[in-house]
């Protein structure tokens, strides 16, 4: 007898694992429609999770790239002497929160303005004779998030006429992302719980169908772990099967979208996430979520029915 | 060896099924447990294999106080006893051989030992020629013998039987009795709850009579004592 007791403590044997896997697949097959419904629920959930995730991550990337590009335009007082201008430049360059300072003459500024208006900009060329614009320093903050504070600080410096920056647009974009993230989260949690519930019901059917088997197992001294394994695996398979279709669809979709958008965005400061490794990350995330949903659902039923 | 000391059992609904039980059953004994339905016979039996826990008192089986045994240790304890029921509790989709082997497979015994032990016990209960049959193809007595084979395949020191002949006709009951006596002759303790007056009065063994949750009579080579 003691020889037998020792065996329980040893690591699970290969044929035991084989047995559990076999039993779990038998149940999946036997539960037919419930299996189908659970896998379907996981599929729908993960597909939505995946699409949301891809969109949000890319919006985030776009916002970041815009933010990276936010420039503070420091307009120099027209009355400033070249010495004062030099002093301002030195001062800006000495500030630790500033990454770069580039001078842009008023002629250069006008050319850019003309360019930005395209065809209609031709009329602005009239100003070439008497340029009303200011010379400017184009300043980039070391941390894009601190742009606002840096701009405020520069405003107070001498010889500064005006400070412009595009932070408000970026702030708005971040707000939109944050709202859509919260809305998405609520929807996803709702779907997640539905999927868990369906899986737990499927496993419940398995447990009820195998009540007598479980009763005998307990009677002859099978451990709770041994009894639980096939149900645990059944849940796991349901989760994994449910993640296959979403992973495939999202990978194909993203490949096409990336293939379409990436060339158009070439040379632009706006970026979307590259196909690799992003799609691998999404796939891994979906697979992991499928596993968690499946195991969670099955553990819920098992706990209730096996009174462990 | 089974020892009960001052065992009480009160169910949540208020029923007192064991009201101060003291008893000692030596290794190798053959014991009948008799009593009317609802006398506390089933609870007495169920406490021996830790299907029920006593409210208070000690139940020592093979040196372990199973009243205090942690749930996680129950599976190991169960491997040292065999249990037989009135309704056989066989798995209908498994053959005779598979039903018996099941008890060893789920405790992860090696295939070599399983094969050897299953054939041994099926020979002992005289079913070696029907290993490939399903329970539905067997008579009641044969099904009960499969269930007995399953209970002893793990070489337990104690076999507990809860009315094993309750569903069987008299001739078949005698056959089952013979099997139990044979197992007992190898040194295995048998505790058998029964309503079968003929058997108790003919095959003389110790009789423990239970009424109102108490042992009201405990005799070596006793009689059934009730008018069934």
Automatic annotation (TrEMBL), chain A:
Keyword Cell membrane: yes
Pfam families: FtsX, FtsX_ECD
GO CC term, one of those recorded: plasma membrane
Membrane topology designation: Multi-pass membrane protein
Domain ABC3 transporter permease C-terminal: 186-303
Chief place of localization: membrane
GO biological process: cell division
Residues annotated as transmembrane: 32-56, 183-203, 236-258, 278-297
InterPro entries, per the entry: ABC3_permease_C, FtsX, FtsX_ECD, FtsX_firmicutes-type
Keywords for the protein's UniProt record, in alphabetical order: Cell cycle, Cell division, Cell membrane, Membrane, Transmembrane, Transmembrane helix
Subcellular location: Cell membrane
Domain of life: Bacteria
All copies of domain FtsX extracellular, residue ranges: 70-163
General function of this protein: Part of the ABC transporter FtsEX involved in asymmetric cellular division facilitating the initiation of sporulation.
Family (UniProt): Belongs to the ABC-4 integral membrane protein family. FtsX subfamily.
Name used for this protein in its record: Cell division protein FtsX
Organism: Caldibacillus thermoamylovorans
TrEMBL record, chain B:
Gene name as annotated: ftsE
Protein name as catalogued: Cell division ATP-binding protein FtsE
Membrane topology reported for the UniProt record: Peripheral membrane protein
Chief site of localization: membrane
GO molecular function: ATP binding; ATP hydrolysis activity; transmembrane transporter activity
Subcellular location: Cell membrane
SUPFAM superfamilies listed in its UniProt record: P-loop containing nucleoside triphosphate hydrolases
Protein task: Part of the ABC transporter FtsEX involved in cellular division.
Species assigned in the record: Caldibacillus thermoamylovorans
Family: Belongs to the ABC transporter superfamily.
Alphabetic keyword roster: ATP-binding, Cell cycle, Cell division, Cell membrane, Membrane, Nucleotide-binding, Transport
SMART domains according to UniProt: AAA
Assembly description: Homodimer. Forms a membrane-associated complex with FtsX.
GO biological process, one term: cell division
Pfam families for this protein: ABC_tran
ABC transporter domain: residues covered: 2-228
One GO CC term, this protein: plasma membrane
């Amino acid at each position: 007898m003691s020889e037998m007791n020792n065996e329980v403590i040893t690591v699970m044997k290969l044929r035991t694992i084989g047995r559990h896997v076999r039993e779990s697949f038998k149940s999946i097959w036997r539960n037919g429609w419930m299996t189908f419904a659970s896998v379907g629920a996981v599929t729908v959930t993960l597909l939505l999770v995946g699409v949301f995730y891809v969109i949000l991550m890319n919006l985030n990337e776009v916002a970041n790239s815009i933010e990276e590009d936010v420039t503070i335009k420091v307009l120099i007082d027209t009355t400033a002497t070249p010495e004062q201008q030099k002093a301002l430049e030195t001062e800006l360059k000495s500030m630790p929160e500033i990454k770069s300072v580039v001078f842009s003459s008023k002629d250069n500024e006008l050319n850019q303005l003309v360019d930005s208006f395209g065809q209609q900009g031709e009329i602005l060329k009239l100003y070439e004779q008497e340029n009303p614009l200011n010379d400017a320093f184009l300043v980039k903050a070391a941390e894009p998030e601190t742009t606002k504070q840096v701009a405020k600080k520069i405003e107070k410096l001498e010889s500064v006429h005006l400070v412009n920056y595009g932070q408000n647009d970026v702030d708005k974009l971040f707000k939109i992302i944050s709202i859509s993230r919260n809305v998405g989260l609520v929807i996803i949690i709702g779907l997640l719980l539905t999927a868990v519930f369906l899986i737990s019901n499927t496993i419940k059917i398995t447990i009820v169908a195998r009540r007598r088997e479980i009763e005998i197992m307990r009677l002859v001294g099978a451990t709770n772990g041994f009894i639980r394994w096939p149900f645990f695996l059944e849940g796991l398979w349901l989760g994994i099967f449910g993640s296959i279709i979403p992973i495939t669809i999202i990978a194909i979709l993203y490949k096409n979208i990336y293939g379409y958008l990436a060339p158009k965005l070439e040379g632009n400061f706006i970026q979307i996430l590259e196909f690799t490794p992003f799609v691998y990350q999404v796939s891994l995330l979906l697979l992991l979520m499928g596993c968690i949903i499946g195991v969670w659902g099955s553990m819920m039923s098992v706990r209730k029915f096996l009174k462990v | 060896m089974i020892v009960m000391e001052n065992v009480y059992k009160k169910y949540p609904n208020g029923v007192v099924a064991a009201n101060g039980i003291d008893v000692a059953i030596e290794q190798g004994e053959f014991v009948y447990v008799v009593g009317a339905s609802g006398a506390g016979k089933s609870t007495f039996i169920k406490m021996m294999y830790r299907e029920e826990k006593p409210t208070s008192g000690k139940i020592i089986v093979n040196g372990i106080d199973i009243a205090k045994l942690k749930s996680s240790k129950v599976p190991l304890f169960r491997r040292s006893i065999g249990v037989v029921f009135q309704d056989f509790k066989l798995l209908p989709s498994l053959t005779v051989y598979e039903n018996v082997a099941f008890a060893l497979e789920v405790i992860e015994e090696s295939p070599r030992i399983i094969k050897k032990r299953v054939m041994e016990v099926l020979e002992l209960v005289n079913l070696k020629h029907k290993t490939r049959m399903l329970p539905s193809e067997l008579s009641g007595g044969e099904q009960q013998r499969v269930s007995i084979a399953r209970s002893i395949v793990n070489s337990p020191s104690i076999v507990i039987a809860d009315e094993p002949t309750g569903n069987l006709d008299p001739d078949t009951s005698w056959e089952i009795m013979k099997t139990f006596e044979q197992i007992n002759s190898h040194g295995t303790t048998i505790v058998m709850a029964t309503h079968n007056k003929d058997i108790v009065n003919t095959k003389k063994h110790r009789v423990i009579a239970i009424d109102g949750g108490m042992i009201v009579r405990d005799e070596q080579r006793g009689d059934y004592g009730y008018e069934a």
